[in-house]
Amino acid sequence: MxxxxxxxxxxxxxxxxxxxxxxxxxxxxxxxxxxxxxxxLTMLILARTQAKRPNGGYARSFVTQMEQVMAxxxxxxxxxxxxxxxxDPASCAEAVAEVAEKVGLNPSIAYIEGDNILSRLSELAxxxxxxxxxxxxxxxxxxxxxxxxxxxxxxxxxxxxxxxxADIVITGRVTDAAVVCGPAAWHHKWTKDDWxxxxxxxxxxxxxECGTQATGGNYSFFxxxxxxxxxxxxxxxxxxxxxxxxxxxxxxxxEVSIGTVTSQLLYEIGSPSYLGPDVTARFxxxxxxxxxxxxxxxxxxxxxxxxxxxKVSMNKLGGFRTDMSIALTGLDIEEKADLVQEAFWRAxxxxxxxxxxxxxxxxxxxxxxxxxxxxxVALWKITVKDSDERKVGRAIFNSVNELGLATxxxxxxxxxxxxxxxxxxxxxxxxxxxxxxxxxxFLEGDRTVVExxxxxxxxxxxxxxxxxxxxxxxxxxxxxxxxxxxxRSGDKTGNANLGVFARSEERSRRPEKDELDxxxxxxxxxxxxxxxxxxxxxxxxxxxxxxxxxxxxxWDDLKVMEKKILVRDMKQMLSNIETESEQVIDxxxxxxxVGSEPEVRPGLRSGHIPGSTNLPYHELLNPTxxxxxxxxxxxxxxxxxxxxxxxPIITTCGSGISASLLALALFTCGHNGAAVYDGSWTEWGGxxxxxxxx
Length: 694
Fold this sequence. Notes:
Blueprint: E1 5-9, H1 20-26, E2 32-35, H2 40-52, H3 60-76, E3 79-82, H4 89-102, E4 109-113, H5 121-126, E5 146-151, H6 156-163, E6 168-171, H7 178-188, H8 195-208, E7 234-238, E8 244-248, H9 258-265, E9 273-274, E10 280-282, E11 287-292, E12 295-299, E13 302-304, E14 309-329, H10 333-347, E15 357-363, E16 377-386, H11 394-401, E17 421-432, E18 438-442, E19 447-450, E20 485-492, E21 495-502, H12 513-525, H13 533-543, H14 547-552, E22 567-568, H15 570-579, E23 583-586, H16 590-594, E24 613-614, H17 631-640, E25 649-652, H18 657-668, E26 675-677, H19 680-686
Helix pairs in contact: 1-3, 3-4, 6-7, 7-8, 12-13, 13-18
């Protein structure tokens, strides 16, 4: 059985953080560096770029990243697999080779073609391929107007390139998960019918393909995640059976949790059967398990044969558009909007019917009794579209400009400009997979053809049954839906989905104070309970289990030392400033403690509670595996700050989480009575009446 392979992501889209490749290569061990640079819109952008600049239809930022990391990748034997080739993988490969020569390296570079079927559209149509819209069934009537047409290829061309010794593999349009599944299949030597293993790798690829969306980005509950100002990129350890562990480099921002992974699993899926060119992954079979901080295991993924057709993404130029907005300030908003609209059309050289599309609307962003000018402003917005660029460019801008001194008081423009912008139309279709082979080409000259079709397979789509919706819920109260569920949206241009997931009470990030009170009451009432109260609080804060689960635990070698409340509120903290009866230790970073770095929560003051001492929690962790240091080293760290662990202590931080880690560390040193200020700096610094030191 082979060891797991670690596949890292450094890009979720064309334009993602340029330094991510360097971060993933330098900040922790990886075996393969991958990324996703392509989307349906990206293919249209690359097509327009290629029309203006031949041999320019690829993601140039990838080439820049290769210049930054190629030497390190070669030194550490890190393979690179990228779909940055876009519409022109050959030119992208040649550009990377030029960079390699520039830095004095000679990697083996392969690229994969075959996905681009634009030049074959007429031939394929003549052979009977109808290119019907796969969502609507609509017949295509203007095949010649499309400027890009790419089939979504699978992973086996990548496998072939790696088998032949490629250090860098550059593809065109493959599925987002293929750049992850390919290295896993190569490393573990899977066959094309290892359905479960392939499905597991596809799921892992699906989770990490959008980069930081797996580590807290676009996450509904982002306020509960630390380090969101610069989230780390994810990686996947993929085992020989297809199971995986999703993680990120230690010390980077964000988090990898069941919540963040669940959210990304819902991205761009339409049914439990996740269709791909290599395998159909059953998302309704998988199980998630939080192994440790920033480590989530995905297992038990079931795989089924893939469909016999590949999806084709086709794009054409739909025309041009212009968007303009005019501010409506103060009183008489509706009357001002009516006047602006009437005056605009009198100034415009065209009638509304002259455009292919016109949309005007009033956006009421203004407030009653506003406290600022911004709160007094509503917007009149107009969007026009037409195939004639001249009609929707300067003509619209000039017509709006004429109104500046002639209509409503306080008029000014908000956004928009004089130039029209192109927009595209996406058309998804299907093509039999046996008509789209993959061509694996090395710059050294070697060429291989890999069939996309998996012989002897057939796929039966398992539709989702309609569920009976419960309507009688008993007593209810109105509240924002986001308090109960998280969501993740995804789109394939005109086709969008919304995935929704609920969190159980057990999975809430941190119990409220009344929950902690109930925990403490349950402990006092439970005669068999032998867990120290400090341990219970830490356990509750970190694992967030229900009271019943906590009280079922039995640690017979431990005894209740004290029955006292180990949670502090603001009133007690204010009193402690006067009495100085308890030492206060702040677990935040030094910059936030002294006020030289901003708080992670917008609008929150920097600084610290008067009289408190700073001991950043990360100084108590092993830098390799993030476990607690031995008690003697922890004791020394507290002593170096002038803190006596024999005297009463209160721990605090940003929100009460890291403070609990300090309490746990003190517990390992024999201090069983460390209290946690539950509100921490969020509560203290958020109250303007509280004194702050810097």
